[in-house]
Amino acid sequence: MPALAGADDSKEQVRSRADLVEVVREHVRLRQVGNQFLGLCPFHQENTPSFRVTPQTQTWHCFGCGKGGDVFSFVELAEKTDFRGALEMLAERTGVELRQEAPQAKERSQQRKRIIELNSFAAKFYEYVLHSTPTGEPGRELLARRGVSTETAQRFGLGFAPAGGTSLAQFLRSRKRSVADATAARLVRDGQDFFRNRLIVPIRDERGQVVAFVGRTVADDPRKYVNSPDTAAYSKGRVLFALDLAKEGIGGKGHAVLVEGQFDVIVAHQYGVTNAIATSGTALTEDQVRLLKRFTDEVVLAFDGDSAGKQAAFRAIEQHAAGGIHTRVLNLGGAKDPDEFLRAGGDWEKAVREAPPEWEFWIRESIQGLNPTRPRDLELALERVYPVLAKIPDPAVREAYRVKAADLLGIEARLMTRPLKTARKAPDREAAPVAQEAPPRQALGAKLSIGQHLLSVLAVRPEAIERVRSQVQPEHFSEDDRRTYHRMLETFTGGGLVELQSRLESFEEHEQELIRRAWASPPPRVDDEYVDGLASKVRLEAMQSELRGVNRRLSEAEQRGDRDQVALLVTENRRLALTVERLKSEKGN
Ligand SMILES: [Zn+2]
Q: How remote is the CA of residue 277 from the centroid of ligand 1, in Å?
C-alpha cells in the first residue's frame, strides 16, 4: 500500500492488537462452535449462517458468497471504506499511532485538504449565483428546460458561473482566499475564472467532499462540458459522480444504476432512482469498478439506446466482469436515453426487474436480425456468439450461457463445441465491434475427402439433397461416407435441417463431428454449381477407384492365364476408362 508511508509497520501493529472476533461482533451476532464463530453473513442475504470467523488465524470466510479475508478486509467491506480508511479506524481503535507521512506526501495531502475546502467555498458561491442573482438566470432557464426542480438542484449543489470572467476570482480575493490555492484547485487560471457562463455541477467523492466541477454550457458553445483538470484532490478516473448521494440507495436496492452522463444521474434521482451514478469526463476505469465494488456486486447499465450506447455497454460489461461485478442491461424500449424513458412515465422498477444479465444481453444483441433457421444466418450467428462466450470468466457460467445460446439459436448445446479462446486479459478499451471480433472463417481442412466435402455442403444446405441424389449413387461414396450419406438422406426425408439437428445424436461420433464442423465453419460455397462440381468429383473418384480394382484383377487374371476373365475385365476397363475420361473433361475436374 504505497498510499501511506510506513503503512506496513503500522499495519502489522494494528493487526496484532485488533481482535477480529470483537470487530466482527459489532456487525454480526456470532455463535461459538468449537474453535470457530458462526453468524449470518453481513455481505449477502442469508437465513442460515455460512459466515465463519477463525480466531486462531484471525481470518473470516463466508461459504455463501465466497468473501473472506483478515480484519482489514472486513472493516473495508463493513464500513465501505478503502484500506487506508480501515487502517485509520483500526489504528484509532487499538491506540496505534500512525507514523508521520513523508514530507512530500504530507504536503500533497495538505494541499488536497485546502483544495477541497476551497472547492466547497466556491460551490457555495456558484450556488448563490444560480438561485439568488439575476446573473444566474441562464442557469435557471437551462434547469427549467431540462425539468430539473429547485429541490433536485439543491440536492446536487448545482450552481452557476457568471460570464464576466473574474467574478469568482474577485470574490475569493475579497474573502482573503489564497490565489495560489485557487490556482492549484484550477478554479482560477492567470487570475481569470476557469468556468464562465456555465451551469456548474460539483463533483463529490464518495464521502461527499467537493473534489472538482463540471461546467455545462448555457450558450451555443461547441464545448458542451468543461471538466476540472486533475488536481491533488481529483483524479477523473477515480471518482464516480453522485456516489455520495447514491450510497444509501445502492445499499437499499442492492444494485447501482450506471448511466452515461451527469444530467442523466440528476434526472434519475429526481424520479426516485436514487442509486444512479455516472462516470465524469472519462470512460469507465478499473479504479472506478474497484470503488463501486465496495458498495455493490451488481450494476444495472442504463446507457443510450443507440449503437454508441451499446458499444459502451459491451465495454462496461467486460470491465465489471473483470472486477467481479455482475451487470444487467436495462431495456429502455423506444426511449433514446434514461432521461427520456423516465419523463415519458416509463416503469423503471419493472425495467430493472426485466433487465437481462449481461451475457444474455450480449448474445441476444449479437444475433439480432439473424434467422438461425437459415444456415447462412446460423453460421453468422455462431461466429458472433463464440467470441461472446469466450469473454465469460467463470467456466460454469460460460457453460450455462453456451446452453442458453444454443437455445436461442434453436440448436442443441452439444453442437456448440468450437473451442473458446478464453485467455484472460485486461478488457480492451478499443475493442472492435462484435462482428469484427469473430475469428477468421476456417475453410474446411484438406483432411476431408471429396465425399465428406459434399456431405458438409448437405449439412448446411439440405435442399441440395435431390440434386446430389440425381447425380451420385450411394456406392460412389467410400464405405464410411456412404453410411453418413444414407443417414442424411433418411433424416432429410423426415424434415430438413431441424430434423438433422434433433437427430444428430443418433449419428456416429465421426459423423456428428463432420456435421457440427460444417455448421460451425460452413464450406466456402454451397450453390448448385458447386454441388454439381463436387458430385462429379465424387463420381470420378469412385470410377478411378473402381478402375484401379479392375486393373488389379486384370493383371491377376493374366498371371493365372484365365482368358475368359481377362476378356471380361478388359471390357470393364475400357468402359470405366471412358467414363473417367468423360468425367475428367467435365468442368473443373
Ligand atoms: Zn456471505
A: 25
In this structure, the answer to whether residues 462 and 574 fall within a common structural domain is yes
CA 398 / ligand 1 centre spacing (Å): 23
User: From the CA of 60, how far away is ligand 1's center (Å)?
Assistant: 10
Domain boundary, last residue among 327, 355, 383: 355
Residue 36 lies in a domain: yes
Query: What is the 61 CA–ligand 1 centroid distance (Å)?
Result: 8
Q: Are 106 and 112 in contact (CB under 8 A)?
A: no
Question: Which region, left, alpha or beta, applies to residue 25 given φ > 0 means left and ψ of -120 to 50 means alpha?
Answer: alpha
Domain with residue 117: its CATH number is 3.90.980.10
For residue 50, the CA-to-ligand 1 centroid distance in Å is 7
How would residue 7 be classed by pLDDT, with cut points 50, 70 and 90? low
pLDDT value, residue 5:
42
Q: In angstroms, what is the span from residue 41 Cα to ligand 1's centroid?
A: 4
Cα of 236 vs centre of ligand 1, distance in Å, is: 32
In this model, does residue 432 exceed pLDDT 70? no
188-189 and 192-193 beta bridge pairing: antiparallel
**Residue that is last in its domain, among 234, 250, 277:** 234
Cell triple for residue 446? 484438406
pLDDT at 100: 62
Ligand 1 centre and the CA of 244: distance in Å? 25
CA of 52 to the centre of ligand 1 (A): 10
Q: What are 34-67's pLDDT values in tens digits?
A: 888 999 999 988 888 889 998 877 889 888 888 8
CB 530 within 8 A of CB 467: no
Domain co-membership, 289 together with 313: yes
Distance between Cα 40 and ligand 1 center (Å): 8
Residue 3 in this model has a pLDDT that exceeds 60: no
Structural domain total, the chain: 5
Q: Under DSSP, is residue 247 helix (H, G, I), strand (E, B) or coil?
A: helix
Which residues span the domain enclosing 53?
A: 7-94
Instruction: Clarify whether residues 486 and 555 are in a common domain.
Output: yes
How remote is the CA of residue 459 from the centroid of ligand 1, in Å? Answer: 49
Residue 2 within a domain: no
Task: Using the mean position of ligand 1's atoms as its centre, give its distance from the Cα of residue 62 in Å.
Answer: 5
CATH number of the domain within which 42 lies: 3.90.580.10
Centre of ligand 1 from the C-alpha of residue 84, in Å:
23
State if pTM tops 0.90. Answer: no
- Residue 101 has what pLDDT? 59
Q: Count H helices and E strands in the chain, helices first.
A: 25, 15
> What's the pLDDT score for residue 8?
64
CA of 44 to the centre of ligand 1 (A): 5
- Three-class secondary structure assignment of 337-403: CHHHHHHCCCCHHHHHHHCCEHHHHHHHHHHCCCCCCCHHHHHHHHHHHHHHHHHCCCHHHHHHHHH
* 90 shares a domain with 27: yes
Question: How much distance in Å is there from the Cα of 68 to the middle of ligand 1?
Answer: 8
User: From the CA of 250, how far away is ligand 1's center (Å)?
Assistant: 18
